[in-house]
Amino acid sequence: MNNFIAYNPTKLHFGSGVVNDLGINASQLGKHALLVYGGGSVLRNGSYSDTLKQLEEQGIGVTEISGIKPNPAVDDVKEAVKTGQEAGVDMVVAVGGASVIDSAKIIAICIPDDCDAWKVMTGKHEPSGALPIIAVLTLAATGTEMNAIAVLQNHETREKIGFKNDLLYPAHSFLDPTYTLSVPSNYTAFGTVDLIAHSLEAWFGEGDASLSDRFVVSIIREALEYGPALMNDTGNYDLRARIMWAATNALNNLTIYGRSSGDWGVHALGHVLSFLYDTPHGATLSILYPAWMKVMKMRAKNRIEQLGLELFGKSDVDETIKEFKAYFSLLGSPVKCADAGIDASHRNEILELMNKNHAEGIHHKLSDPEREELLTYVF
Ligand code: NZQ
Ligand code: ZN
Question: Which stretches in the chain have pLDDT values below 50?
Answer without folding.
Answer: none
